Model the fold of this input.
Amino acid sequence: MRTNLRKLDYLFLSLGVLVVDQWTKWLVEVHLPHTASQPLIPGLLNLTHVKNTGVAFGLFAAHGAGGGSWLLVLMGLAALTAVFLYFRFAPERNRLLLSSLALIVGGAVGNLIDRLASGAVTDFVDVYVGSHHWPAFNVADSAITIGIALMIVDSFRPHHRGRERAGQAPEDATAADAERAAATEA
Done:
């Protein structure tokens, strides 16, 4: 029970992502007409109000909301369920993994809210160099991308799973390994 309470702290990160995501989308929808663009850093960054009927960064976008939107909602719910399960079974001491999963959950819920409310996600960050534009994105997309990158970093970190399952802390395991090696050599 105590472990689950400590893990819940990470969901405040998810809530923070969700709040900032929804707030920034609301600001864009209220203050920037659809398809309008406002330069922030000429030659690099615009605020551009677009509706995305696809997944992150406009991938698989349809030409209008409809049946494809519900398929994306169902896929989003399935992915969100998988991330929640991963979060549930992730070790409490793995703060990097839990943080990455919390970022993904916050971003996924933010985009899911948009998709359920209007059949499309509001995107507004337009990064470009010359005439080459990266697909527009939002805070939720950024959180998901950062979360996935952190998961990849975490996957390359050494984990002492086998020893920890046996109730032995990683530090104790290292000492025990050294003692066994010394005993074997003797």
Q: What stands out?
A: Residues 2-158 form one domain. The CA atoms of residues 41 and 165 lie 51 Å apart. Confidence is low (pLDDT under 50) at residues 63-67, 162-168. The beta strands are 37-41, 45-52, 121-129, 132-133.
